Amino acid sequence: MDQYVTLSVIIFIALASLWEFLAGRNSNGKKSKEDWGMAVVASVSLSAVQRPALVFATAWLGRLIVPQFEGGLAWLQEAYFWPVLLAYILIEELLHGGAHWFSHARRMSSKPMLYLQQLFKIGHRPHHFSGTNDGKGEISVTQTFVEHWLFWFIMPNFWFQFICLYLGLTEIFLFGTAFKGLWAAHNHVNWNYDLYFLNHRWAWVRNTMFALCHILTFPTQHHHHHARGKNSAKNMCNLLSLYDWLLFGTLAIETRRPSQYGWKQSAKEEHNIWYRYFAIDMKKLG
After folding, report:
1. Transmembrane ranges (predicted)?
2. DSSP state of 196
3. Please, which residues have CB within 8 angstroms of residue 102's CB and are 6 or more apart in sequence?
4. Contact indicator for 221, 252 with CB cutoff of 8 Å
5. Domain spans of the chain?
6. What is the pLDDT of residues 139-166, one digit of tens each?
């Protein structure tokens, strides 16, 4: 079942990546060889290692601690599919957005929390690299699942997904995770269709799109999160900007593309994909 979720997102990313290539969105330094390398390494590892490991770990822990709950909520999706699906999406997005916010937040004052936060920061940092330090890099759909290997194991929303699967919410997991994955991928494609509506000559179109941007996250909003500037700690949610607006205070709605994408790669080693993907520099955890 999990393979269908992964396959649907992979097909979308492959088609969007082909469009980016044919449209010239990867040329002239917009995407580096390290970007391509990280996309391959992270995607293969996620499909072949992290997700299977999380499925196994969740099932093993469940059968060890609460075996009586395995499949115990299957009846719930049969009786209340749409309300449960909505609840699944709301909770999963809240967990993801909260952990993402934690990865970008200011340094925690508590030593244990600071240690944990730095692990999240190290885990998430590779996701914000675009191109090289020349400032020509841009966002690309293949960046959707580019993270440090550690990130997938510490993100609470992934554990939540597979706990729901263990509890028997199979169809909820399938539809909810596929929808969220596809929306997140669509927000990383190098397009900005939402700007057409935000800058439309008719005021009611502009106002409607502006209102929708308070509920759902659209590509340009997420692109500004990937920018090198004031908005790089804004728009934390991949799907529901409602949380950015009402909970995190991180909503940013712009009417033009970012002027510069990607974080500066400060260390020489960060130009190496294996360092980006595997290294945990304990000196950064002080």
Report:
1. 6-24, 36-60, 80-103, 158-183
2. H
3. 117, 120
4. yes
5. 2-190+268-285
6. 999 999 999 999 999 999 999 999 999 9
